[in-house]
Amino acid sequence: METVLQLLISGVLLGGVYALGAMGLNLIFGVAKVVNFAHGEFLMIGMYAAYWLWKLTGLNPYAGAPVILVFGAAIGWVFYRCLIRYTIYKTEMTQVFATLGLSIVLQNLALMLFSADFLTVKVFTADWESIPFLGGYVSTTRLVSFLFAAVAMVLTLLFMKRTYTGRAIEAVSQDLSAARLVGIDVNKVLTVAFALGIGLTVLAGGVLVPSFYAFPTVGSSFVLISFVAVVLGGLGNVAGTVAGGLILGVIETLVGYLEPDLKEATHFVLLIVLLAFLPNGLFGVGGAEKEGLK
What we know:
two-stranded antiparallel ribbon; about 290 residues
């Protein structure tokens, strides 16, 4: 029983960070109906940003989280203004190839700039690598990363529910034509949504780097995890992504304990099962994935 509790705690802590990374993907899809295949590379950028911030200034990823978030939001603004706004009204295939092409460019750019070395950030000493928690021990980096992810997710949901801009984002995601009729600046809303979505993704990469290695193709691993969390929680449902990420983290941890070789395969199997039998996820709205910008 103690082992099961330990695994559940570890899974929830890991799933919280997965949820933060997936929120950006689902936020962008929910508003703009754009599936961002470069999502993993933005998370990779966050990992490198946190590493070099620590390397150059001595600021660890947790203390530098606001800087990483602002940096990610700036990248999201550039991403929308320089690429997405020219493809957002095009066909889905145009968007797929545009974001997939960007993914390849970012991977190779990282390889040129940073080589293929595996980099990480050492935040805590050996004495503090794990701490007692609910009768067991948990990784300190996982716990702190989860707390940062939880705060970021709560603030994001409050922003969406309590501010005019947040409600405008939800209005555009629900009915673009009606949002235009009531005077909402759709282009501005899309810019903010992309800045926020990519900012959260880059922040997730920043808080992950103390627990995982940063390297040019690390995004390929995390992009599948984000897609599974989004589909599990429901396409277009940002709050549902939180539950999806937590559930995925627990499942991955349990499977990894029982059979480590099947840990990676779990993501593929879950995605196939969900798309076949539960395409709207646990909390999604039927047809949300088919609604597009007109």
